[in-house]
Amino acid sequence: MSENHRIQDHHYEARIFMHRVLVAAVVVLGLLGMLAARYYNLTITHHDLYVTESEKNRVHVQSIAPTRGLIYDRKGRLLADNRPSYTLSLIIERVENIDEILVQLRQLVKISDVDVERFSRARRKGRRPYEAVPLRYRLSEDEIARLAVNEYRLEGVEVEAQLIRFYPYGELFAHAVGYVGSINQRELDVMTEEDMHDYASTRSIGKVGLESHYERKLLGEVGYQNVETNARGRVLRVLERKDPIPGKTLQLHLDTDLQDAAHSALSGRRGSVVAIEIATGGVLALASTPSFNPNLFVTGISHKDYNALNTSLDKPMYNRAIQGQYPPASTVKPMLALAALHYGVNDEKRSIRDPGFFQLKGHERKYRDWKKRGHGNQVDMKQAISESCDTYFYDLAHRMGIDRIHDFGLHFGLGARTDIDIPNENGGNWPSKAWKNGRHGLPWFPGDSLNVSIGQGFTQATPLQLAEMTATIAARGVRKKPMLVRTIDGEVQSPVEVERFNVSSRHWDIIFDAMREVVHGRRGTGQRIRRGAKYEMAGKTGTAQVVGIKQDEEYDASKLNARHLDHALFIGFAPYDNPKIAVAVVVENGEHGSSTAAPMARKVFDAYLLDEKGKLLSDAAQDDLFAAQLAENEL
């Protein structure tokens, strides 16, 4: 018998084995007890809580974006539409590796660096968990099919149908209608909790123009649905649904025909044309050129395109109609002549001698007339307006004084925003003694009044303000607020009368007659636009200096940079005997209001007052034509 066999102690080994079994049994029973306690805690004690949490993993609340309200022109032509588009999106929480999934997707569909850059920006924005982040818009049918076939290996990838804003007329209404764009971080930062709810499933917001001003009305109200999903997050069925409420429909005073006429007239020049319906204050045309394509902004503009627009010397995104501030030049002369009549400073028969300049008593400086040798020895008010005699208005302003000039100009909306229903309007400047002292710390000098009398010096106005001034003259002192929107969901927006001030009817007649003479007089500065006209017009030309000219120098266009040439202006209304439409034109560096700006106004007048055959429309015929066009477009 071996030595190892002799020394084995079977009883000892049995005791050790039993001890180990007992310890193992205690441990196992302890673990089972803990498991039972945990099970009891989950299923009994916290049953309600975990049932709810479990349901959350299976049932989700999804927001439903409302359909954005449509925008039409006055005749029912669609200016802002919603078009269906299929969008490729990623749900970040369900994607294990973003870079890897992007590589896979680029093998299936065309994804540009701009798309990836836009997607990266969208990822960093504040969003709700499991909210899809768009990667590519406007997928083709072929791309949708390739994604559907590979769906099984594209976890977290979705293709969803949505409506995308589209502007059928492109750059024609870019400044007035504006555009929508992706909601940026700055906009998210200022949103309240209520705002976040309203924009829960909406990725765009109005940025400029009507799209911005009427954002809340166009947005609509968000809806929701409770959906049951599988483990991959795919929707199995809809349990409950509340439909969204679409945004309101806007119909504008803007007329596509007039807007097109204004843009065509400007024909690539830098400038603006504004037309106002005198009876309502409705803005019929609000053109600013050069313009841009608003569709570039809808799903996110590329850096290249944005830089091209933003760095252009011509500033295509600058709305000259409401932001451009120009010296109004001689366009203010009819209003100043009316002020002189109203205050008794001048009457229509008082005349002056015009040697081609004006001098203040005791001063050597000569304030020159645009006509080097003057307008004659007996220049009265009618001739001074029709031939735009600067010397007459130098004399008038010197005797009337800036206080009365300033106060009277306020009645026509000069120096104040019109409060038109689009944002970012500038207020121009209608100077006074108090303004100069506060702005420059200097007293008002007599020469300052002379500069104001010809719309130069400190005086600035936007094309919209000039159109409002012209409409107020045509309405004989009744000033209405310029408005772009005519109806909201069919509810007519009543005209807003800002002011009605009393001036003698005879004084109005004198100004009307003088402004008619500008166009139809033998020596009127705007007489070239009367040729072939089927109606009579009243107007006033203007030429505004861009750079100063020394006393001993003369204006020489050949020696100036093209951007330093004079601006060309024209204001007018028609028909003369029954004013319906007022127009203001500003052409940057156009040099002559008579040859450059006035013909543009004539084109807009014709577009409003004549039919397709060039015949003058009567009031009844115009109303019938408007109704027929509106019915044809079925707004």
Number of domains: 2
What share of the residues does DSSP label as strand, in percent? 15-25%
Provide the structure class.
alpha+beta
Please tell me what the overall shape is: elongated
Task: State the end-to-end CA separation.
Answer: 115 Å
Oligomer: single chain
| Biggest pleated-sheet summary | 7 strands, mixed
Q: Roughly how much helix do the residues carry, as a percent range?
A: 25-40%
| CATH-derived architecture of the largest domain | 3-Layer(aba) Sandwich
CATH fold description of the largest domain? Beta-lactamase
| Stretches with pLDDT under 50, minimum 5 residues | none
CATH class bucket of the largest domain: Alpha Beta
The total strand number stands at 23
**How many H/I helices?**
25
Radius of gyration: 36 Å
Global mean pLDDT: 89
CATH superfamily of the largest domain: DD-peptidase/beta-lactamase superfamily
